[in-house]
Every structure is written in C-alpha cells, then in structure tokens.
Amino acid sequence: xxxxxxxxxxxxxxxxxxxxxxxxxxxxxxxxxxxxxxxxxxxxxxxxxxxxxxxxxxxxxxxxxxxxxxxxxxxxxxxxxxxxxxxxxxxxxxxxxxxxxxxxxxxxxxxxxxxxxxxxxxxxxxxxxxxxxxxxxxxxxxxxxxxxxxxx
Amino acid sequence: xxxxxxxxxxxxxxxxxxxxxxxxxxxxxxxxxxxxxxxxxxxxxxxxxxxxxxxxxxxxxxxxxxxxxxxxxxxxxxxxxxxxxxxxxxxxxxxxxxxxxxxxxxxxxxxxxxxxxxxxxxxxxxxxxxxxxxxxxxxxxxxxxxxxxxxx
Lengths: 152, 152
Known about the structure:
Two copies of one chain form a homodimer. By secondary structure, chain A is mainly α. In chain A, 76% of the residues lie in helices and 0% in strands. Chain A contains four helices and no strands. The relative contact order of chain A is 0.21. The A-B interface holds A 40-42, 45, 92, 95-97, 99-104, 106-107, 110, 113, 150 and B 40-42, 45, 92, 95-97, 99-104, 106-107, 110, 113, 150.
C-alpha cells in the first residue's frame, strides 16, 4: 500500500478522526446542555446523528493510533470498503443534520417569537456550525479513503 | 471506453438526467406557485439550488441525447472531471436544500401558528420530497460517472 496521507492508518487520518470526534462532541454539548431540544425534530435528528458519529470517529481514531504507534497491519480490501461506505453514509447524514439544524435555528431567530430565551438560539447556531465542521472533516476522510480503494 | 450503464453518454444517463430535471422543476413549482417563500431563508436556498440544478441537468441531458441518438463522441478526461465535480457539488447542495426545507416545513406544521393557511405547508413538504428524489437521482449519476473516471 502506498502511504497516502489521510487514508486509514496514517497520522493525518488520526488527526482528521480526532477533529471529527471533537467537533461532534462540541455540537452535541451545545445542543444537549439545554433540555428543550427534543421539542424540535431537526434537533433530535442532530443529536441522533452525532450519537452515531462520535463512536464511529473514535473507533477509527483508535485503529489509526494503533497503526501509527504500534504496528501497521496490512490493509484488507473488505474492511476498507466497509470504512468507505460507512464514512460516506455518515457524511451525508451529518450534512443533512447540520443543514436542518441551521435552517431551524435561523427560522427561530427571525420569527422573534418566545423561542429564543437568553442565548438559546446562538447555542443552536453554534451547534450547527460545529456539525458543519465535523461534516467537512468527515468528507475529507471519505475522499482520501475512496482514493485509496482502487489501489488495494 | 466501456459502455458503463449510467455514465455520461448512455441512455440510462439520459433517463437519470431527465428524472432530475423533472423532479427539480416539480420542487420549484410546488415552492414558487406560492409567493410567500421568500420570507424563509431555507425556501430561498431551495429555489436558488433548483435554479442551478435545472439548467445543469438539462444541458447534460442534451449531451446524452446527442450521444445516444446521433453520434457517440470519444470521452475527454478533462470534461468528465468537470462533470463529476459539478455533479458532486450540486448533489451536496441539493441534499442540503432538501433537508433545510423539510425541517422548516416540519417546524411550521408542528408549531401550529398562523403560518399554514390552506394547504400551504403540505406544498412545502411536497417540494422537499421532490428535492429529495432529485438528490437521489443526482447521487446515482455522480456515482456512475465517478466509477467511470479511472478507466479513461
């Protein structure tokens, strides 16, 4: 296997995965520290997707860390395919959740109803921004892994 | 070039492109026949993206029709790369617009305020559904063209 930066098992990939996990956790915290999120479908969707994203990123970060610091296993095309498909699906879902959250937060702010008590709506916006950053890193990982796949 | 079904210049691709254009036009009509869409950011976003989607799909449908019915030009890797990149970018934007519209329409319905006069909100939902279908076909086109790219 060529040492493609960003593909599974490299230090760049480890950095990407850790970034995804950190942004996902930040997005989840901004959303969940308030208890009102479950009254909006879009926010529940974001929480669900982030709950899928975090374990996925952390598991692959562990695999990368093992590969970087301990021993580089020979890549298995089957496992790589699963990683690529999972990455793409999660990347689409993260984008969908981020867009839903952003548009609902925007609507709540412009409608100027009794929804935005205190700094609540800015927190929703921050949560959406973190989800977008997480999506961006996840897309980068997906593209690098997809690039590597035909050479296996 | 192998005759990969669904790649640029085949009849399957022509069908996919026509489907995208039809669903995009339907989504635009469901949204725009009402004049209130511009008061919501998400709906303006959907209209913008559909306005990009329709000429893109129709242009590529024309290319496919020419290739199927008149004469098959030899594929150029440069042009194929532009088509693949444009497809992916538009596919992501369509997904984003569809999700935003769906979540805002859902919020308007559940908030049961004075927003949904008549059948307005069902029309927003239908528009989002059409945008999702258009995204699905656009994703299929992108995957087929991406698959073809390394063999050029």
